[in-house]
Amino acid sequence: MDIISTLILTANMITAQFCSDFKIDECKIKIEPKEERELPWVGDPKGTRRAHGYCVSNHKIVLNIQHWSGINDWEKKELIYHELGHCFLGLGHNSDISIMNPFPKTTYYHVKKDGSNWHNLVIELKNRVNNRKKYEYFQ
Q1: Coil, strand or helix: which one is 84?
Q2: pLDDT at site 139
Q3: Is the residue at 67 inside a domain?
Q4: Domain limits for position 24
Q5: Which of 41, 52, 64 is nearest to 108 (CA)?
Q6: What are the helix and strand counts (H, E) for the chain?
Q7: What is the helix (H) or strand (E) element at residue 57, kind and residue range?
Q8: Euclidean distance between CA atoms 24 and 50, whole angstroms
Q9: pLDDT digits (tens, 9 = 90+) for 77-109
């Protein structure tokens, strides 16, 4: 199977798990892989950084093919949960140790390489949903 087919299949499986975790019944989303050069990082005045992915609407997320190829399965899961946090949960970014933080200080991802803290990251995300008034929404 080629990288694009594998990306779409894996992203759809992760999306199904996300929708199960957050009890979302209507969970249809299009996964659109794109080349890195097609994904400028919003807010980068020089235009040299590229996004790992982004939510287009509650029906589509775009993923950077080159970035996807270089990350492990747990990081892929965090990337999809981050984008679906925007698309389905309406959440914005934050600066906590969280799936919704786009700028971790030491690495691109908060999940440990072995996934040992995944459960805690999902609990934090669920707490954000349950305490919406404390957080800004995705605009």
Answers
A1: helix
A2: 42
A3: yes
A4: 3-134
A5: 52
A6: 4, 3
A7: strand 53-57
A8: 30
A9: 999 999 999 989 888 888 777 898 876 555 567
